[in-house]
Write a structure and sequence with these properties.
single chain, about 80 residues, alpha+beta, 3-stranded antiparallel β-sheet, about 15% strand, globular, DUF7123 domain-containing protein, DUF7123
């Protein structure tokens, strides 16, 4: 099954858009290796803009049940703290 299809299934079940599901999947996949994520770096990895990431994070935060996502800092862009 393709990742695009998995994103669509996850989005539908959690009430997320496909873009929000991609962001959530990205955070889940990388949370074990890193704790802090800058919006612009998430955007670079997902071929989005930092503004798109920021605009979708509130829905991602609400849908994330297996990870905790907290807005952490604002210097040179928003940073998110993600813990499992």
């Amino acid at each position: 099954m393709s990742t695009a299809h998995l994103d669509a299934v996850a989005a539908e079940s959690a009430g997320l858009s496909a873009k929000q599901a991609r962001i959530l999947r990205y955070l889940r996949e990388n949370a074990a290796d890193r704790t802090y994520f800058k919006s612009r770096l998430i955007a670079d990895d997902l071929d989005l803009s930092a503004k798109e990431v920021g605009a979708n994070m509130s829905a991602v935060v609400d849908a994330a049940t297996d990870i905790d996502v907290e807005k952490w800092g604002y210097s040179s862009g928003t940073t998110w703290m993600v813990t499992t």
